[in-house]
Amino acid sequence: MSRLAKRWHGCASPLLAAIALLVSAAAHAQYADLDRADWKEDAAPPPPVYSTSRLIDIEMPRSATVRMGIDPETITINHDTGIVRYVAVARGPSAVNATYEGIRCATGEYRVYARQVQGNPGRPAARTTGKACAAKPA
């Protein structure tokens, strides 16, 4: 490896981290009022059509027999509420299941809107909600 390549390799991680920090700071400033307690969720649109051929894998433990992925074409961002919605797909040895989910990190909430079990049409989920994201520092 050349000296220039070694130098670039040594500073690439800090450089990428700094860029990510700047982007996240700008995004946080733009959506600073999204952590209001009086926010209202918009009506979730119907689950988008997903494709297993477009999935981006989520890193899983080596011992896992299920692979998880998200179809990037299903990702939507509501800039008014800060909700990010997407379809997550679980692929195992004998089945493929999908969930239509949403997260709102400003308040640390998530919701599952619909589930689809292989061979069956998607159906609305029971109101699955909870805390998903790390709490914001005080």
Automatic annotation (TrEMBL):
Q: Which residues form the signal peptide?
A: 1-29
The annotated region (Disordered) lies at 119-138
Q: Which InterPro entries match?
A: CNP1-like_dom
Alphabetical keyword list: Signal
Keyword Phosphoprotein recorded? no
Keyword Signal on entry: yes
Q: Which residues form the CNP1-like uncharacterised domain?
A: 36-118
* Protein name, UniProt field: CNP1-like uncharacterized domain-containing protein
Q: Which organism is it from?
A: Ottowia beijingensis
